[in-house]
Every structure is written in C-alpha cells, then in structure tokens.
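$ fold --in a.seq
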Amino acid sequence: MLRLAMTTDAETFERVREPLAARGIEVGHVRAKERSLRASGGDDESADVADEFDGFDVGLVYPTRLMEGAVVDERLGVPWVNGRDAVITSRNKAGVLAALDAAGLPTPQTTLVSNPVSESVVVDAVEGFSYPVVVKPNSATRGVGVATASDPDSLLGVVDYLNLIHDYRATGDKSFLIQEFLPDARDYRAMVVDGAYAGAVRRELDADALAAGRWKHNVHRGATARGVDLDPEARDLAERAAETLGIDYLGVDLLKTDDRLVVNETNARPTVDAATKYEDDFYDRFAALIRRRAKRE
C-alpha cells in the first residue's frame, strides 16, 4: 500500500483517510510545527523519532511553515503533491492575480502596496477605485486582516494598523492589497484536481450575520459551505487558473455578480470538504494524482 504523509491533522486529514485507504493509499500524519525537529546530527536520536519520518512514498502539500517545511522535506525525502514552489506561488495573492491577468483571466481590480510608503502613495494607489475598497494582507489566509474602507480617512486608518505590524523588522511580508469591493458577489471555492474541475462549494453567511453587516464568506469565520454545480464558464475559469499557475491540486476562489465572474484568490493547501460536495469521481482522480506524483519522482 502506498503511504502518504500529511502535515495537517485537521479536517482534511480526517476526511481523506478512509476514501484514500479504500483506494490503496494509507494516510499518516507527520507533525511539522510547534515541536522540535532535528536538523543535523543523528547519533543520539531515538528509534521512535527516526521512524516517524520513515516509510512514506509521497506527501500531500508542503508544510505551511516554510522554515519547518525545509527540515521535514529533507527528513521525509519524498515528492509532494503541491511542493514548496506551488505553496509559495499560491500564497502570494498579488503574484497570482498578476499572472492570471497577464494570461487574460478576469480578476478584481487590485493594486499592491509595498511598505513603507507615505500616505500620498496610498492615496495615489486607490485612484481609479470606487469606495468602499477591500484592504488585505498579501499572504494571509482564512480572511485574517481583511477589512473594508469606505473613504480615504478610513483607508489610511487601516493602513496605520498594517504599518504597526510592518514596523517589526522580523515581519517578512510587508505588502498589502487594495482591491475593488464586490458586495453582492456570490462566493465559490472550486476544486481543480490534475487540471480538471472536481466540484465546488458556495460559501454563505446566514441571515443574521448578513443583517449584522458581516460580509466575509470564509468558513473559518462562520460561513457555511454548500455543495453546488458550477456552470461551464466557472468550471473553465477555475481550470484555466490552475493551468496558468501550473498547480495540480488547487482551490480556486471565484466571485460572481450578475454581470461578472472573477478569480479572487487561490489556495494550494485547500481544505477538502465532504465528498458529497464534489464530483462522483473526485477521490478516484485524487488518488490517481497522488500515485502518479509518487511514481514521477
């Protein structure tokens, strides 16, 4: 049986274990963070610790913390479905949007700001936008730090808080995005496996949340993911996004209004939802991708 290493033990790990085991792939967890990891020298290492990294054939998604990931990668010595380059590519929201725009794919109007800059640069950066605008960190996930600004003063206020974070010399990413706000857009996460659409969910807030003025549709912020059948245009856009970025296994976030369909973000470490929310052959294709990556390397 093929052995697959996963560095997460959250929802995706629990959901994929049985379906992949039924297809001859044993899933094991390798802890990559909030622990110590031997980087060199091994004479005093116990057999139990050594065995933790032994016997795997392939990994599913490079660890989210790149520093720890480099050590885990060396210790495991396996190919990855979505390696380091794929994770870095997808994490850079501005880089993704620039690549998709260059390929002719529709995206929200977006400007990257690289701190430190003066207030005049921020004001100039929002020229051509209509308020409100979205302000978001360039490399955060799960909706962390995303805010709207309704006028120049509130925009500069949000940027003030970002400046406080970016003042720390150890902060690696000192960039943020200013993006057009599509308030009535429907929010979808499409899954692409090995270049082909594999299902989608619509992320929705309940009536009480909407009445309270909430607008972020992240599941980790309380939204519900409901399985949907995307139309051919949306399916094609998700597949083209994955092809443009060269990522085999990708979550593609789509925003759809009455007259527009755009790629908002991508995720090379996508959460796998319940199988009922995907195409019937989702796990067959997922397992085939894992097997082929193990063989290819």
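$ fold --in b.seq
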Amino acid sequence: MDPRIEQRLLQARRQFLGQSGVSIGMAALASLMGGDVRGDTSSTGAASSDATTAGQRGLPGLPHFAPKAKRVIYLMQSGAPSHVDLFDYKPGLDKRRGEELPESVTKGQRLTTMTAGQKSKPFLPSISGFKQFGECGRWVSNFLPFTGEIADRLCFIKSMHTDAINHAPAVTFWLTGAEMPGRPTLGAWASYGLGSDNENLPSYVVLTSRDTEGSCGQLFYDWYWGTGFLPSKYQGVKFRSSGDPVLYLSNPDGLSRETRRTWLDTLGQMNAVKYREVGDSEIATRIAQYEMAFRMQAAVPELADLSSEPQHVLDMYGPDAKRPGSFAMNCLLARRLAERGVRFVQLMHSGWDQHTNLPTQLQVQCRDTDQPAAALVKDLAQRGLLEETLVIWGGEFGRTPFGQGDINNPKQHGRDHHPRCFTIWMAGGGIKPGIEYGETDDFCYSVAKDGVSCFDLNATILHLLGVDHTRLTHKHQGRYYRLTDVEGEVVRGVLA
C-alpha cells in the first residue's frame, strides 16, 4: 500500500484511540500488532470475511484454510548430519567398503574443494550400525537410541535434496529459498502471515547451541532468522544463554518500571510525530518493538525459570537440561515457548561437520542431541501439544557415502558435504506418523524415488499452518515474492 495511505490509516486510529485516553505508543501498538494495517490482499489472495482474530495479529484472510499445526519448532542441525550413518540403512555398502565409487554413480557431480582433488573416493559404510525400532520397524542408527524409541511418532523423509554445497549458502537456501542473504526466513514469513497467540512474547524466537567439544567453527549469521524485505518486526528474536536472555531487556540502574512506562509513552509520541512526517514503516515497527520489550520484561524471566519443572521432566531431557546454552535446555525452552503460544521456534545447533573426526565426534554429537530432541516430542505429546505443534529435525544437506581422507585411519577420516540426498524427520502437526517417504539409490548417493526439495518442504510446512504458499506474497522492488519463489509442491504423502 502507498505509505501515504498507510500514514492516514494510522493517524485515524491514533485520533480515535487518543480520544479514549490511550497513549500514542499503545495506540500505535494496537494498530500494528492487532492486524496488518495495510489491508494488502495481494499478500494473502482474496481477503476473507473471516478476519484473523486480534489475538493472532496476522494478515487479514489468514489462515487460508483450517490449519493442522498452530506452531512450528524447527531443530536445525547445522553442519549436516550424515544420513549414511544415522538414517539411510544400506547393508550392501558393508560389502563394498574400500571399493571405489564408480563414475556411473557420481555422474560428474560438483564436489567441494576438500574432496574434488582427492584421487581415491572409497565407499565408507555406516560406522554406527543400525537397529529396527518401533512397530513401524524403522531402521535408525545405534547412535540415536532415544530417536529410535519415538520412531512410531516420526515421519522420515529420505529423499531430501538441495542445490547448495557449502554451509552458509545451504543454510540460507534452506531457510529462505535463496542462497544469497536478503530474503525473509520461513519463521519470518510465518510470523508475518499468522502472528502470535501471545502478546507478551515475540512470534518468532531463536535459540542457538553448539557441540560440547567445540569441534566445529561454523557461525550463526543473523540473516538465518532475518526478515529480508519484510518489516523488521517479524525478525526472529534471539534468546541468549548468558546474562539477560534478550539484549537490553533489563532497565538501567535507577530506572523503575513506572518511569520506563512514562518514558516509552513520551518516546512513542515523538516517534509518531516523525512517522507523520516521513511515513516510514520502520518507525512504526520501532514503537511496537519498544512496547513488546516492555511486556517481555515480565514474561521472559518467568519463561526462563525452570524451577517449576518436575525432576522427572528434567531427567527426560538429559543431564544438560539445566545447562544454559545447551541443546537440551533449548529443547526444554522450546516446549515452554510452544505452551505460551509462540508461533515459530528455531533451534540452531552446530557441530555436524565431521570431515576428519567422524569416528570420534559423531557419537558425541548424537549423545548431545538425541535424548533432548526425543524428549521434546514425548513432552509435547504428554501435554497434548504435539497434535498442533509441527517438529522438524534436519540439516542443510547430507554427507558423502565415500570417505574423506584415509578411511583406514581409525581416528582421522570423515565425510564431505553431499547435497544430492539426505534425511530429515518430522513429527506432530498433521504429519503421518511411523512412515518413511522417498528413497535413495543403493549407494546412498542420489534420490531414487519421490524427491523433496527445500521448496517442497517449505510449501508443506506452510500448508500445515493453513497457508497456501502461492498466496502468501510480499511486493518488493516491483515484484511479488514468496518463500517458495516460483517452485514448490505440497508433499501430500507425508500428511496425516
């Protein structure tokens, strides 16, 4: 919408609310957080007469249809877990150990500079071994016994594939639909379209952790939870593991909460004057975020206080459940955020990058993450939240079925990046449990059946949230963009 029209709409609301004795700051907040004032039906398709409730604060007309999931918890395993060792059981590879991977299999695929010049590319079968779990009989690595225990609740997609071959572009592609930074993330799109069910917490929260040995040097870039060209109020809010969970949340020494309230009202009035002058939507965002921060001062400490959690729940998440910054504690916090109506929770965990330390570090990484991830699914199920919460576990690509380095060195070898096929799992929120979807070839090298791209996965996630991915768009630089660009099909075979 034209900024001048948006400005007039905001002014009209302020005038009405101002006559009721409401502060300018709160008036702007009500306008911005109570619904998208632009009324841009191009973002959602034809506007529905069934407008989104004030509690959800999403775009008019969304959701497009009845959702299966109210919220998403995305357990992003950065660095790329090895599908060969963890999920994609190929007993025939054991007999091929050390044999050269034939050119008829690789078909000239682009490799990273770490193995492109490697003269020998010997088959390396799973180092962990597999076991069948559950009534569904899924084959899962011996390194993931807790995940195996919940196999009957999970849907394994074994035919994921991507275009990117290095970490940062691949993670960016997976979360935004483009390898270059600058596009909104999945969480930002969900927040933009659907809002939150909690007025005191952000609709999009991010938690980060790393492997306990610190073996992986990957960075978490802010654009992994950014809004790109969407208004910045939809950006993921990162919760820290030390100090204040959110930067600058506490009042400065000597500033009381009452004084802060007065200060925010005055600042809101000043920002409103500036908004009337220039019509910049980011000024309106600033007002809304100040108000959100004020309410978070009361909500976040209660959220982060785990003293009310029973000991048996803490035990379920494992020994690191109360260690700040651990994957286990973040999984527990994710459940608490889901209980409080946060729309999208994104856990970023690094360490799945075993180029040279596969025999020693993969099991450590599994031990850090296996129990907490399974506990999250069980905990949500026990509380009646799993049916309306979509849980996703997966990385940005897979690992090569051939070894990197000398596979006969018992401690120093590994696997390179592999975008042609890999595995993720999903649970709850409208997903069919106890199944596997898609297949790879006999070498764990390429998709053989029912391939799923990142566009397909994101289309499916939005579908489960009640959103038609082709109709959730935003106009930027003269073009309407969407998360799935011009691609993406809902993967019907995984839907309950």
